[in-house]
Description:
Blueprint: H1 2-25, H2 33-56, H3 59-62, H4 66-87, H5 90-113
Amino acid sequence: MLFIHIIFVLLSFISFVARVALSELKPEILTLKAFKIVPHVIDTLLLVSGISLVVRGDWIESGEYNWIISKVMILLAYIGLGVFTMRSTGARRWAGFAGAIACYGYILSVAITKQGFL
Length: 118
């Protein structure tokens, strides 16, 4: 299950970066139905695989779940910044993009170290 989760983490990141690039270079491509549906499918499968890992792991029973709460909180910020990025233009888009990438990096570091801010 971990391997599947990692694949969806990478696909989600690539999808986000590609959509931001396309919004700058070829925004008309983003109007295609696939570009509106596929990212949501990827992100849903990412979330389902993550929840599955939490349920199958012993983190909740052992009381070692503060890092999971940290990841979820930053995930919400990442989603908000991603939406902001896709709806903005110019410097605001790039500021949102930088913030989203910073959130992604933090989530990745917490996943590796199991150390959150809580």
